[in-house]
Amino acid sequence: MEQLWFTRILNALFAKPVVAVMAMLHLHPAHIEAPISNPVAMEIFVALLLLLMGIGVGSSLSVEKPGAFQHLFEWVWIWLGDHSEEVVGHHGRRFIRFLATLFLFILIANLLGLVPGFESPTQEVTIPLGLAVVAFVYYHWQGIRQLGVGHYLKQFMGPIPAMAPLMIPIEIISHLARVLSLTVRLYANMFAGELITMIIVALVPVAGVLFMGLHLFVGILQAYIFLVLAMVYLSGAVAEEH
Question: What do you get for the CA distance between the two ends of the chain, in Å?
């Protein structure tokens, strides 16, 4: 495995404790000297970047003279709030913290591969899978909080009690398929886009600029699609008619 510069730093600092933790969990890294892979390192980098951006914006908030970053974050916050109310309902703004974090994480992760010395962590299937599982757990948890365990689980039985033995496995498979759908859609598009861009840039550097623009568009689009699907699933989970 060819390590990126940030991956090398993390492995130099944390290789031993990571290997120790993995040994406790009966896991065996492929490389003892470098247990942290590039996708995991890039995922950590995105999380740290979001944390630093949040701290930076929070420490420089101003009503009289808002900075460029503050304007950008306010615009994203307002846009997400309005969009969540359209998709989830009038109570959609309650979930804006989760939705904003999810969207910004995926967006930055998708676009990170355009920066020299980095790669998009979402081109590794385990990262989109983790994001899909987080969205899956979150909307079920919010549905249970909103409706109660009994009332929420009743939706898996369908409208006719006699159909429950048939509807329950169908509903379970349907919800699990959402994890697969979110994972494959994000992973496949980012992996293909990254691969094609690298090949074109290597063969025809001039044409590579156009494909980098296409990669930028795909990265933004896939982050938005993931966000909208998460909103739709959340809307179905917390809807009162359930």
Answer: 49
